[in-house]
Structure formats: structure tokens, C-alpha cells
């Protein structure tokens, strides 16, 4: 498990726990959890992650999408 803003994931907010896992050959899986709420972050795209660069990009964009949705929900609740 790695947290955001480390050398492996410099573009991801530090509130996320990131768990990349090498599967078979070039394929990877990724699991992300928001530490503050304990919610699992949905990884968008639906395609296989091929290579560590794909994992880094998926983590970056999934965290940004998650944070923007949280911000929008917080604005609507007020």
C-alpha cells in the first residue's frame, strides 16, 4: 500500500491509499481508498491497465474525479 504524493504517485492527493498489484504479464490492477471516509474510489475507464504508467495515470485521474464529485456533493448539500 502506498499513499499519494510519494515518489511513485506524485500527482495523487495524500489522503488516498493506493494499492497497485501486478497481475500477469503487462497487466495491473489498482485499488484506491479515501482515508478520510474509507470509501473505495472507482477507477474509471473499464479497460485493462497495461504497465505501471497506466496505473499512475489511472490513479491521478480517478483521484481528481473523486475529489471533484465530493466537492460538488458538498456544494449541493448546502
**How far is it from the N-terminal to the C-terminal residue, by CA?**
35 Å
Report strand %: 25-35%
Outline type? elongated
Structural class: alpha+beta
Largest sheet: 5 strands, antiparallel
Note poorly predicted spans.
none
Count of helical stretches = 1
Number of strands: 5
**SSE string:** EEEEEH
Query: What's the gyration radius in Å?
Result: 13 Å
The level of helicity is 25-40%
Average per-residue pLDDT, rounded, comes to 88
Question: What features would you highlight for this structure?
Answer:
78 residues, 33% helix, elongated, alpha+beta, five-stranded antiparallel β-sheet
Describe the model.
By secondary structure, the chain is an alpha+beta fold. The chain has one helix spanning 52-77; strands spanning 2-3, 16-22, 27-34, 40-41, 49-50. Strands 1, 2, 3, 4 and 5 form a five-stranded antiparallel β-sheet that branches. The longest helix has 26 residues, at 52-77. The mean pLDDT is 88.
How do you describe this structure in short?
This protein is α+β, with helices and mostly antiparallel strands and 78 residues long. It has one helix at 52-77, and strands at residues 2-3, 16-22, 27-34, 40-41, 49-50.
List the helices and strands and how they pair.
Blueprint: E1 2-3, E2 16-22, E3 27-34, E4 40-41, E5 49-50, H1 52-77
Antiparallel strand pairs: 1-2, 2-3, 3-4, 3-5
